[in-house]
Amino acid sequence: MAALAARIAGVHQSAIPSWLFGMPLVGDGHVLSFSALAGLIVIICSLIMLLGVSESSTFNIVVCAVNVVVLTLVVIAGSFRADAANWVVENNSYAPYGAGSVVQGAGLVFFSFLGFEMCSSMAEEVKNPQRDMPVGILSSLAIAAAIYVSVTLVVTSMAPFTSLATEPAPLAWAFDHVGMEWCSWIINVGSLFGLTAATFTCLLGQPRIFYRMASDGLLFPLFKNLNKKGVPLEGTLITGAFTACIAVTVSLEALADAISIGTLLAFSLVDAGVIFLRYVEDPAAKKRALDARRAVASASRRRSVEDSAAGSVEGQGALGGDRGIKEAQSGAYSAPGHGDGLERKYAGKDAGSRSGGASAGRGGGNGDVEG
Asked: 74, 116, 207, 273 — which has fewest CB within 10 A?
């Protein structure tokens, strides 16, 4: 972080106050160091989150877009200076330190895949979560993995990885190493956007997780409070304050190691839990599913009975009305006076249409008697 700030400012690293980016608190500062700039970035991200989901999404899209553009520039520009000979270091071996070093390196950079699970915490704020959530998680995972692999292949082909490991800003140093200083400046600026995007993503999802846990009764009701924009107010403030304190006092290297261990452990536990639930029957879940099926069946039967009763009543009314009209017509033709019969005929029709069924029948019967 110190070298990055110095490169962006265009001055020597010693000219920047150490308290701004990493003043050692204990020993050499590898674990504990004071960084006011890190805390400031966390506070700014927390304030943007309070503006609303739409504003937060716009900010996140802009930051991620800049990050993707910078990484794409690294791949395209660096490919012109790539040399596959840099991949072979000792004894013509692709992995000179063995397969264990590859696994160890993968564990250290596992934090690169942190943030994809935060998409699931936004399920209540999308229109079609059953479709949008899997598409969003898998597509972002595929795009990020492709970019990470491409950047790694290009940068390690520009300079030996043994030299990159000793540099505080390896991406920018690799372009300086091949004489592309103009590109290293762009990479330094883009690195800040990359760190900001990772910070903002984690801060955006954590208050939603607290909100859901509080809604289920697993946390204090305080975390259920929302502001006018629908943002968990107390959850966002508490998360931002706690994260800012950690960012100010803990070094970036220690945080990266801790996040890698925590992310790998959390993903492993979740995956193991899913496999366990697939093969182990839960009596409570089975009872809830059975009750739900019974409720659906009961509602369906009740709806069928109501529809049948309504159809029966309508059929009886229509039959009674037709009977009344026919009886009125027969009474009209049996009367001695043609005019009187017509009057009684239409009177029977009116009576049948107004009162239906039985009333129309009685009207027709009176007509026959009078006739």
From this structure: 273
Residue spans of alpha helices (H) in the chain: 2-9, 18-21, 36-49, 53-79, 99-108, 129-158, 161-164, 170-177, 181-215, 233-249, 252-279, 283-334, 338-355, 357-370
Cα 263 to its chain centre, rounded Å, is: 18
> What SS3 class is residue 46?
helix
Does residue 219 contact residue 7 with C-beta atoms inside 8 Å?
A: no
pLDDT of res. 351:
45
Locate 216 and state its tokens: 């289920």
Report, as ranges of residue numbers, the positions in the chain whose pLDDT lies below 50: 1-15, 328, 332-371
Number of residues that this document lists for the chain: 371
Output the pLDDT for position 2: 43
Residue 11's pLDDT is 40
Contact 341, 304 (CB under 8 A): no
Contact 330, 295 (CB under 8 A): no
φ/ψ of residue 251, rounded to 5: -70, 160
Of 143, 180, 188, residue with least CA distance to 158 = 180
Q: What is the pLDDT of residue 143?
A: 85
The three-class DSSP label of residue 21 is: helix
Q: List pLDDT tens digits, range 213-253.
A: 888 888 888 888 888 888 888 899 999 999 999 888 888 77
pLDDT at 18: 60
Residue 54 CA to its chain's centroid (Å): 13
Q: What does the pLDDT read at residue 56? A: 85
Chain-centre distance of CA 266, in angstroms? 18
| 3-state helix/strand/coil string of 148-168 | HHHHHHHHHHHCCHHHHCCCC
Cα–Cα distance list, 353 to 313, 321, 324, 334 (Å): 16, 6, 9, 22
**Per-residue pLDDT at 238:** 92
- Look at residue 353 in the predicted model and tell me its pLDDT: 46
Distances (CA, A) of 7 to 36, 124, 172, 186, 204: 18, 42, 9, 10, 29
Place of tokens 């970036």: 252
Instruction: Identify the CA nearest to 145 among candidates 71, 81, 73.
Output: 71
Token pair 């009367």 in the structure block, residue? 335
